[in-house]
Design goal:
Helix content: 25-40%
Distance between the termini: 41 Å
Radius of gyration: 16 Å
CATH superfamily: Bifunctional nuclease domain
Length: 159
């Protein structure tokens, strides 16, 4: 199976910030290129934001939750999460892929995923998180000004 991102310029990303608002179903993660200033946010659900926060804080629930279960299933089937790629965006919706590799180094599968789930799994697996240069150029901002995320005083109609 060929690597689907051959020939596409990819940019390494890091999670820069998680914003969880108790008064909203919409949460935010802020991602930034590792070797630059370009950044962007993704709106995600509360469950995914809480999972990302658990991984960042090193919290371990008593029983496996959904993302831990998915990661454990990948490992139990003899694969590793090689990397997570955000590969496209249409109608304000990001598209991500989980790139799975067998323990012998052979590409096992490329699985379509929501970016929120993909980021949670990438953090859990401690694997690279990347974005296609073309997508980053489309959504980027230079993070030198005030925080672009809406504050708690913003109403849902302002978002």
């Amino acid at each position: 199976m060929n690597d689907p991102m051959d020939g596409t310029t990819m940019v390494d990303l890091a999670l820069r910030r998680i914003m969880i608002r108790d008064d909203s179903e919409r949460q935010y993660i802020f991602l930034q290129e590792c070797r630059g200033k370009r950044s962007f946010l993704i709106v995600i659900g509360t469950n995914e934001a809480q999972e990302i926060q658990r991984v960042v804080l090193g919290q371990k629930p008593e029983r496996p939750l959904t993302h831990q279960l998915a990661y454990d299933a990948i490992r139990a089937l003899g694969a590793d999460l090689k990397r997570v790629d955000i590969v496209d965006m249409h109608s304000n919706t990001y598209y991500a892929q989980l790139v799975l590799q067998r323990t012998n180094g052979e590409l096992a599968a490329v699985v379509d995923a929501r970016p929120s789930d993909a980021v949670a799994l990438a953090l859990r697996a401690k694997c690279p998180l990347r974005i296609a240069e073309s997508v980053l150029e489309q959504v980027r901002s230079d993070d030198e000004g005030p925080d672009p995320l809406p504050g708690p005083e913003a109403s849902e109609s302002d978002e």
